[in-house]
Amino acid sequence: MTTNSTSHEDAHEAHHGHSHGHEAGHGSFKSYMTGFILSVILTAIPFWLVMGDVLDSKVATIAAIMIIGAIQIVVHMVYFLHMNTKSEGGWTMMALIFTVIIVAIALIGSLWVMHHLNTNMMVMSPEMMKNLP
Amino acid sequence: MSSNIQSQSAEKPQFYLEEDHHPEGSTNLGFWLYLMSDCLIFATLFATYAVLGRNYAAGPSPADLFDLKLVAINTAMLLFSSITYGFAMLQMERGAKQETLFWLGITGLFGLAFLGIELYEFYHMIHEGATPQRSAFLSAFFTLVGTHGLHVTFGIIWLVTLMVQVSKHGLIHENRRRLMCLSMFWHFLDVVWIGVFSVVYLMGVVG
Description:
The complex is a heterodimer.
Chain A: H1 2-18, H2 29-51, H3 58-79, H4 91-120, H5 126-130
Helix pairs in contact in A: 2-3
Chain B: H1 2-11, H2 15-18, H3 26-52, H4 62-65, H5 68-94, H6 97-127, H7 136-169, H8 173-206
Helix pairs in contact in B: 3-7, 3-8, 5-6, 5-8, 6-7, 7-8
């Protein structure tokens, strides 16, 4: 039984050497710390911008929040989720790209359609409101 | 390499059965696909919030309701839990069972602190009359943030289950695979939270 399991281990180790799938989860202390420190900085900046009322323009603040948020998501993907183009032979990256496209369509599409619905809605007069069912 | 295997299997046909561990490699990809589909759930909820987030129905607005200090503490809790889970994974790679359990426990405590603060925030809001029924903004808010909180809750249940598994059976191959999946799930929740605090809390308070 023991020899059996060790031979299995060996076979597994050998398989490990040339597989593409298992590297996905292997980070080092350094990479985790790099990701953590970057995340702390990238979280602190937007909170500071909003809580300290640093920028005069609302649009600039919102743009900064969006851009820093996007950068932080990439940092998490790389340092915590160990995303790269090679894991699982590139299929995780394929799935991610597909998801990003669908998410973008869902978000931009919803906002676009609903914005047009709102702006093209007929303004109701008080008389019309009274006659509502 | 392949000719080697073929010649060996020709001599001993049962050898091939023992090496049957190929389905293992696809677990990561399968779990990643689940996370991507989960991502779509959050995308629809974010889209709902983006569309309805300004419809206050003469009720409270984000600037009235949100306490950014509390949100900052909450964000820190989730970020700490992410790095401590990373430490647990590093200890798992070393094969150190007790240290893995220790860091998993710390991760669970940070997760519980996050949930506690979130529930306190919800309780506070509902106490002030800002219930999900109050306005479209609040319906969308509670659905989005509540779904994230529910994910964290199930993540903690999963974490405790795995701590029991690891303490009973050790860092066997199956437990390593499970810890790997939970690691992806946990970090994914942190990624979603970046979207939540940026879009809902910070942009809500800016107005």
